[in-house]
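[User] I wish I could look at a protein chain and see how it folds. I have put the entry right below:
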Amino acid sequence: MTLWQALILGIIQGLTEFLPISSTAHMTLTGKLLGAMQKLSPEQWTAFMAVIQLGTLLAVLLYFAPDLVTITREFIAGNLYYLKGRDMVLSPEARLGWYIIIGSIPIVIIGLILKKLIEGDSTKNLYVISISLIVWAVFLAFAEVHGRRMRTVEQLTIFDSILVGIAQAFALIPGSSRSGTTITAGLFVGLTRESAARFSFLLSIPSVFGAGAYELYKYRHEIIGQLNLPVIVATIAAAIVGYITIELLMRYLQTHTTYIFVGYRIILGVIILALVLTKVVNA
């Protein structure tokens, strides 16, 4: 993989990881068009995508640093009081810490069970990706129509976190989009668009870190020997562009709907199908 290919892929990752339009779809299509995927095995490509997600994880950590400090402090303090037998109601921030943990369980379990399938060829298939783009576009539109959008993250319940966590597990299907599935579920449980995005990004931290760290360790020899500089370039690009994307998206969702992403997903899904059917790219 050349450095310019890595730079482009890093920018694409940073742009699409947080928008509900599927970073996997864009990365896979771009990787095929650039000829970058053909130079790697399916396992190496999965590792490359998982590792550069650590760049977008850094963007989340930096953007939500004040929130994360408060959540961590309240979580530790609240649970220490509880363990000491003191009567204390957990603060909204402490409960949010638990909801992030609980919401991360489904994707961990399903990810481990389907590990071989996720790392194989089927999860890079453009037919699967295009169909997932269109199907979840319909779900997102339905959530926009029927979601009450009256609640904030502080008003989440355990049931809400489980439901959003299950939706996050659907992101293992390429083309679904982690932010797309979780924002959709957040809207369904009545969160405002901004709150749905906020919880989506906070919920991504454990799973993205776990997947990235695991793939980095598993393929450390290949990455150090062949992909070290491209991975570094792509990860840095993903972090910088990802931070800017989060900032813009959070502002956008304060006053706009997600219909633009619904339309984009459908158009992209149709374009990918057309490219495959006309044999411009290999599925």
User: Anything to note?
Assistant: The chain has one domain: 3-277. Residues 24 and 117 are 15 Å apart (CA to CA). The first helix runs from residue 3 to 16.
